[in-house]
Amino acid sequence: MRRSILITSSLLVALFTAPIARADAPAVRAADAPARGGVRVDVELDPIAFALSGHSLHVGVGFDHFRFDIGAFAMELPEWAHGNDGFSASFDGFGIKVHAFLEDDGTGPFVGVAAGISDTLVARSGTHLAARDTNLSVGAEIGWLVPIVEGLYVKPWVGVGWVFGTEDVVLDGARYESQPLQIFPTVHLGYVF
Fold first, then answer.
1. Can you tell me whether residue 111 is helix, strand or coil?
2. Which residues, other chains included, contact 153 with Cβ-Cβ below 8 Å and sequence gap of 6+?
3. Nearest Cα to Cα of residue 159 among 46, 9, 10
4. What's the 3-state SS for 16-83?
5. In whole angstroms, what is the distance from residue 8 CA to residue 191 CA?
6. Residue 56 is part of which domain span?
7. Per-residue pLDDT tens for 2-24?
8. Half-sphere exposure of residue 108, counting CA atoms within 13 Å on the CB side?
9. What is the pTM of this model?
10. What CATH number is associated with residue 43?
11. Structural domain tally of the chain?
12. CB 101: neighbour CB atoms within 10 A?
C-alpha cells in the first residue's frame, strides 16, 4: 500500500507541474489536437475504486490516435467479485497502458494493451491470518471515450487480463481460489488539459 501511495503522490506532482512546464504552450483540447498537431495531457480517476475503499489515478499523454498511460490503483474486492466465502481480498499496484483510438482526436472507440504489477492481500475472516503476493498481469482493453464538456470526459471500458503466478491460498484450513483470468469492467472520469 505504501508503494501505491508513493506512486500516486508522484503522479499528482507530475500532474500539477506539467501545466507550469507548458505555461507558454497553448491549451490543447481533444477536439482540436489534430488541427494543432499537439500533445494531449490528461488525468483520469476511477470512481468505482474509490467506492470500494481504494483509489485510482492515471496520467495520460496522447497524440493522434494514441494515448499512453501510467497509473496507480487499489481497492477492496467484495466477496461477490472474488467468490471465496469467508475471505477478504484487496490489491494495490501500478500499471501502464497504450490505447489506440479510431478517431485521431483521442475520442470515441479504442482498443489497447495494459501491464501492471500488484500486491494482493488475502485474509481469512474471523482470524488474524493473511497472505500477500505480488504478481505481474497483462491484458487487452476495449472501450469508448465520450466527451462531456470541453476537457471533461467519461470513459467506460472493459479489460481482460492474465495474472501470472497466481496460486491458491490456504489459511486456517480454508482455500482461497485465485483466478488468473480476470475480467475488469469499469468507468473512468477524465480531464484533458
1. strand
2. 30, 107, 145, 146, 147, 189, 190, 191, 192
3. 46
4. HHHHHHCCCCCCCCCCCHHHHCCCEEEEEECHHHHHCCCEEEEEEEEECCEEEEEEEEEEEECHHHHC
5. 17
6. 2-192
7. 444 444 444 443 433 344 334 44
8. 11
9. 0.78
10. 2.40.160.20
11. 1
12. 22
Q: What whole-number distance in Å separates Cα of residue 76 and Cα of residue 154? A: 23
Q: Which three cell numbers stand for residue 179?
A: 483466478
Computed over every residue of the chain, the mean pLDDT equals: 85
Let me know the angle formed at the C-alpha of 61 by 59 and 64, rounded to the nearest 5 degrees: 150
User: Residues 105-117: pLDDT tens digits?
Assistant: 999 999 999 999 9
CA–CA gap between residue 2 and residue 102 (Å, rounded): 37
pLDDT in tens, 83-110: 999 999 999 999 999 999 999 999 999 9
CA nearest to 110, candidates 120, 118, 100? 100
Q: What is the pLDDT of residues 39-52, one digit of tens each?
A: 999 999 999 999 99
